[in-house]
Design goal:
The protein contains 15 helices and 18 strands. The strands form 3 sheets. A 9-stranded mixed sheet has the order 2-1-3-4-9-8-7-5-6, sandwiched between helices. The protein has a 5-stranded parallel sheet with strand order 12-11-10-13-14, with helices on both faces. By secondary structure, it is an alpha/beta fold. The longest helix has 23 residues. Strand 7 and strand 8 form a beta hairpin. Bound molecules: xanthosine-5'-monophosphate (XMP). Xanthosine-5'-monophosphate binds next to loops.
């Protein structure tokens, strides 16, 4: 398989470069900026891209790649900070400029090669503090903007390029075509990265695995696709376990069971552990403690299952590429806002090797594989749901009563959004239950009842989110239904905080 290596200098857009390239079926991989030339050669890339980054090339400790890459003969494209590295390395000069952030018009001076076929000018997204003041000898300017004379440069006779703008972001017009010009035209990479091809090669690799494989499934897309791929490769040597922790959404257990039993014939067991989880959660009110409690109980239930139903040699997990990158590339201290729940922390005595068939993939690629493997559209389109489940949608102590309210109210929110044709347009919507109470009137009686918080957010990647401006009529219907259909609820509120400062889940 042909591949492009993207050296990561810490730009928030580094991942996007890989994603854009993979969208036109070429495999692109994000690697740390200081990867050695030897290691690069081992991977045999068709070309290298140097990403942007927050540093300044003359700054103290500025990150630099292995100098050998500039003489390697491999096609090279520097983007933003990468552009300045190219300028600096070949003897040009970089200067501090006024910070430029936003759209500029890029005028094309040479419409062959890198900027071929994109027209005479395009809107280009800039986000930089430095710029090329003098380009190196042996280079020519192929594009400029009002404020940046050398916004795109090319080396004479060699496939080395630098661009000040970001072709990977959607705000750059025809940015994908510019990346295509580099990857397909200049690097001559073959478009052989397809999800059908991935399934075939993953199944072939997994079929070489010896012994039993244990996979925890949640009904979510990552664990489902992990299980299906492994099942395709080794059939009944895979055992899937679904833990009903009593914190699931309305009808979720039945849906997940039906999907695995009826559509996939996977070796599947449900462990009914609702009582254990709810016992463990008794009296726990602190959000982080709740997450911890659910995580620990999960590990316990899971380990017991493994012990009774083993032996297993492997534990399958639906780890995705961004998780792999985040744990492997140091980008400074990323603060942990909430501890996310996963099947970590299994005891050593289980002696399990980890099998992660999706670790090279982005979420949208996993979705495509899910379609290939016959996963239902309903599952593909279902909103994200946190590992600790409804425990983090209940303020204060988790009780059966509050859980029941969260379940029914959540179902009402989902149903009404589906009816309105909005469900698929929204990142996430749900109902949470407050820990305070509010007075209401039911019939002729005053009642002190629960408060339900409805939340709906729009987001691209869950890193930031905006509260959804739902139509008032719809909010009214949701509120009426919740107070009519759930006796204990007297008030319904709508959460209008964005992320940041709020998070998507209330706990
Ligand atoms: P927050 O609440 O941190 O959530 O803004 C961002 C996204 O992640 C989901 N989320 C989780 N997903 N395990 C998960 O698998 C978790 O512990 C967890 N906590 C939050 C959340 O629903 C949102 O989509």
């Amino acid at each position: 398989m042909d591949r492009i290596l993207v050296l990561d200098f810490g730009s928030q857009y580094s991942h996007l470069i890989c994603r854009r390239i993979r969208e036109f079926s070429v495999y692109a991989e994000l690697v740390p900026f200081d990867i050695s030339l030897d290691e690069i050669k081992k991977r045999d890339p068709s070309g290298i891209i140097l990403s942007g980054g927050p540093s300044s090339v003359y700054g103290e400790g500025a990150p630099r790649p292995d100098g050998g890459i500039f003489e390697s003969g491999l096609p090279l494209l520097g983007i933003c900070y990468g552009h300045q590295l190219v300028v600096d390395r070949f003897g040009g000069k970089v200067k501090r400029a006024n910070k430029e952030y936003g759209s500029s018009t890029l005028l094309i001076d040479d419409d062959a090669g890198l900027l071929g076929g994109v027209g005479r000018s395009v809107r280009a997204w800039m986000s930089h503090g430095d710029e090329a003041e003098k380009i190196p000898d042996g280079f020519k300017v192929i594009g400029h903007t009002d404020s940046s004379r050398a916004a795109a440069i090319a080396m004479d006779g060699k496939p080395v390029y630098g661009i000040q703008f970001h072709p990977e972001v959607v705000h750059t017009e025809r940015g994908s075509e510019i990346l295509k010009n580099f990857v397909l035209g200049i690097c001559r990479a073959k478009q052989d990265w397809t999800m059908e091809g991935f399934v075939d090669s993953a199944v072939e690799k997994i079929s070489k695995v010896d012994g039993g494989v244990l996979c925890g499934v949640s009904g979510g897309i990552d664990s489902t696709v992990t299980a299906l791929l492994i099942h395709k490769a080794i059939g009944d040597r895979l055992k899937c376990v679904f833990v009903d922790n009593g914190l699931l959404r309305h009808g979720e257990r039945e849906e997940v069971e039906a999907m695995f039993r009826d559509n996939f014939e996977v070796n599947f067991t449900t462990v009914d552990a609702a009582d254990r989880f709810l016992d463990r959660l008794k009296g726990v009110t602190d959000p982080e403690e709740k997450r911890k409690a659910v995580g620990e109980e999960f590990v316990r239930v899971f380990s017991e299952f493994a012990q009774k139903n083993g032996p297993f040699a492997w534990l399958a997990q639906g780890t995705l590429y961004p998780d792999v990158i985040e744990s492997g590339v140091s980008k400074g201290p990323a603060s942990v806002i909430k501890s996310h729940h996963n099947v970590g922390g299994l005891p050593d005595w289980l002696n399990l090797e980890v099998l992660e068939p999706l670790r090279e993939l982005y979420k949208d690629e996993v979705r495509n594989i899910a379609r290939i493997l016959g996963v239902s559209e309903r599952l593909l389109k279902r909103h994200p749901f946190p590992g600790p489940g409804l425990a983090v949608r209940i303020m204060g102590e988790v009780t059966r009563e509050k859980l029941q309210i969260a379940r029914i109210a959540g179902k009402i929110v989902e149903d009404e959004l589906v009816k309105e044709g909005l469900y698929e347009k929204i990142w996430q919507a749900y109902a949470a239950v407050g820990d305070d109470k509010a007075v209401g009137v039911v019939g002729d009686e005053r009642r002190y009842g629960n408060v339900v918080i409805v939340r709906a957010v729009d987001s691209i990647d869950a890193m930031t989110a905006d509260w959804t401006r739902l139509p008032h009529k719809l909010l009214e219907r949701i509120s009426n239904r919740i107070t009519n259909e759930i006796e204990d609820v007297t008030w319904v509120t709508y959460a209008i905080s964005s992320k940041p400062p709020a998070t998507i889940e209330p706990q």
